[in-house]
């Protein structure tokens, strides 16, 4: 579904990604793990069109999308839930969700999507008229995910969905990610909580200083001593 070939991405003179190649098959949950600043968010931003690779190619369903505008990429079926949630604080929950469907014209389909989002996140239904800025961190994360789903993506990019959330909420968010995946959406997940990420992923890539240093089935990586010591608290 997604193939990244040897991409190099820079912020000014600083090289953030160095020859990164990876692929995602339809229906998978793939996770990127690595320390802060390793380049994981940069990779998601490159896929969703917020950053342009200097070299290399990003292929989505066989089509090169490396230089396309972000909205064109959303239209093709890729939605990005950014780190830090980025909800529109002065707009209601419902208005935020409607913005997620901004590029769609099928009114009936949008209604159906809204219904699905409220089924996935009943808390949002209770708060639909409330200003998003007054929601808790967990509710804002649910809203950011719901808003991305309103575009009916085939591929969902999730950047640090559990950041700053209480353990109970983290579990809930991860259950919902699994549900979204079971309903047919492919997921690329960036997550500090490597244990949780590996527990739901099919495959994983380990990113260190802008390079992919390891990849494999999530279960293999969970069992690897190298990964345990570096990312799983040595257990």
Oligomeric grouping of the chains: single chain
Largest sheet: 6 strands, mixed
Query: Could you name the ranges where pLDDT drops below 50 across 5 or more consecutive residues?
Result: none
Overall body shape: globular
Tally the beta strands: 10
Instruction: Please write the string of helix (H) and strand (E) elements.
Output: EEEHEEHEHHHHEHEHEEHH
Quickly give the structural class. alpha/beta
Alpha plus pi helix count: 10
What fraction of the residues are assigned to beta strands by DSSP? 25-35%
Taking the alpha carbons of the first and last residues, their distance comes to: 34 Å
Percent helix, as a range, is 25-40%
Round the Cα radius of gyration to an integer and report it.
17 Å
Question: Averaging pLDDT over every residue, what do you get?
Answer: 90
Trace the largest sheet across and list its strands: 6-7-8-3-9-10
Topology:
Elements (H helix, E strand, L loop, with lengths): L1 E10 L2 E11 L4 E5 L6 H8 L7 E6 L2 E2 L5 H7 L1 E4 L11 H8 L6 H14 L1 H5 L10 H13 L5 E5 L7 H16 L3 E5 L3 H7 L2 E6 L2 E7 H6 L1 H7 L4
Descriptive terms for the model:
6-stranded mixed sheet, alpha/beta, 4-stranded antiparallel sheet, 26% strand, 10 strands, 235 residues
